[in-house]
Each structure stands twice: as structure tokens, then as C-alpha cells.
## 1
Amino acid sequence: MNCEKCSKQIKQGEEMQHNGKTLCEDCYIDVLSPARGCDPWAVYTAKSFSGKDAILTENQTKILKALEETGGVEPAVLAEMLKMSPADLEREFATLRHMEKARGEMRDGKTVLCLW
Ligand SMILES: [Zn+2]
């Protein structure tokens, strides 16, 4: 029996099952590990150790929460929801975009802010 991920031979009794795949112990730990490259939170965690701008302010936390709840919202509506001035919102949002936490996208010709 060989690992379906790294093709390494797995000793009898040490094979692991994950999503219908047979994996060796190393790969199994790897897929279960929360520190995967494709996980945005892992990226965030990694960045939080390397830059002071990765620490969220109260307003940034509110913005992310609102984006999560709404699934995407127009900047003016978000500013209204959070009782922030559009300029403040823009500044906080720029930081979040830089941190790859949130982004703007076009929906039906309108700019909508949403989670990254
Ligand atoms: Zn493997």
C-alpha cells in the first residue's frame, strides 16, 4: 500500500484514511494541520508575527464581522451600518485589503466590499 499523496510506501496498519484517500501518517497530519497554505487564517497568523499592521483594530474587526454577516455590502451601506465616516471606512478597508482579509468586487455594476 502506497500513500496517495506522496507515493511513499506505508507500513501495514499505519495507513490513514482521509476523504476516501489512503495517506501515510505524515500526509495525514499534513492535511489535518490548520497551518495549510490555502487557509486564509493561516496566512493571517503567519503575517501577524511579521508585521504590526496585522493586528486588527476594533473598527477592522467590526468591518470583517459585517462583511461576514452580509456576504458583501456596498461601501456607503457599510459606513452607515458601522456609523463610520466613508473616509475612515476607506482607510480601515485599505488596511484589511493589504492584509488580504477583505476586498472589493464588482457586482451588477456596483462596487461591493466582501471577505477576501
Ligand atoms: Zn504520504
## 2
Amino acid sequence: MTRNEAHNLMIQMLKSKNLQKHGLAVEAIMRALCKYLQNVHDREQNEFDEEEWGIVGLLHDADYELVEKDPTRHTLVTEEKLRPLGASERIINGIKAHHDGIKASRDNYLEKAVYAADDMSGLITAVALVRPDKKLSSVTVDSVVKKFHQKSFASGAKREQILACERELDIPLEEFVGIALKAMQGISDQLGL
Ligand SMILES: [Fe+2]
């Protein structure tokens, strides 16, 4: 499956522009994490296929609207759509792993990364939206870290899930914020932020 095929599928499956943008944001963070972790673990290169990591980010919530009536099926409808398209097991398992109601164990870096990137993207978006200009360019690492510790702020962005960066990826929170913020700033036009 190519990035273009994945992007087309996401647009087909998701009507909400906000959810499409969320997919793009997590794609950007995943690609950045892939590069970062490949540098750290330079002997395990087969695990770090940037396009594959990006596709998992793009499609992780693709069935969100289709499972509205039965959220316990979240990611399973995407799996059903992806199988006939020949998506790899790594992509399908990666998508399922972001949702611990479906796949509780995270068995490789890709699966750990999408779990943490999902909620980090939500936190950074929320921080941008409370800036006077609502722009990612005026968001700083410090401001995101500060809001991270303010539990009442954007409580949907699960702090425990974001902290998988430290527990499971060995990336300190502040560094993860820096990676994710830069990745999202790089596509700010597409995100409209
Ligand atoms: Fe998500």
C-alpha cells in the first residue's frame, strides 16, 4: 500500500475535516519518530520504514465515523478494508495497537509510537487553539509541557498515553514534545493551524 492509496482511503472513510487533519498530524509525528528512533537504534533498520509508519498514523482513526454506533469495533472496520488492499500485517497491527481496547500489547516501536503520538497530536492542537493567533508557529515546547501538567486542560489528551514516550520509547517528554511540535509545524498549512 502506498501513501497515496492510504490518503485516498482516509478521505473516503472520514467526512470530518478535523479527523482528516488529525490523521495528517499523527502521520507527520510518526514519520518524525521513525527517523528519530532509526538514528537511535541504527542496527534495526527493517523496523523503520518511514512510509509505513506514516500510513499507520494516517489511517489509525479511519473508521472512527463508521463505528460511531459500536465503538468496540474501532480499528476492526479499518482492518477489514485494508486486508483486500494488501496492507502489511505491521500496518494493520499498528493501527489496532493505538486502541488498547482492541490490542492491549504493543509489540514493536511502531506500535508504541502510534500509541503515544495519537494523544500528543491532540494536546499540541489544543495548545495551538488557545493561542491568540491559533497558530502552531506561536506554540513553544515549554508551553506544551506546561499544559501537559495542567490536568484539566484538554483532558481528552490522555497524559498516561503520551507518557508511553518515556516508558516504552525511552524519549523524555520534553524531547517528544519537540519532535512532535516540529513535525506538526512542518504541515501547518494542511492542518490550518
Ligand atoms: Fe487518534
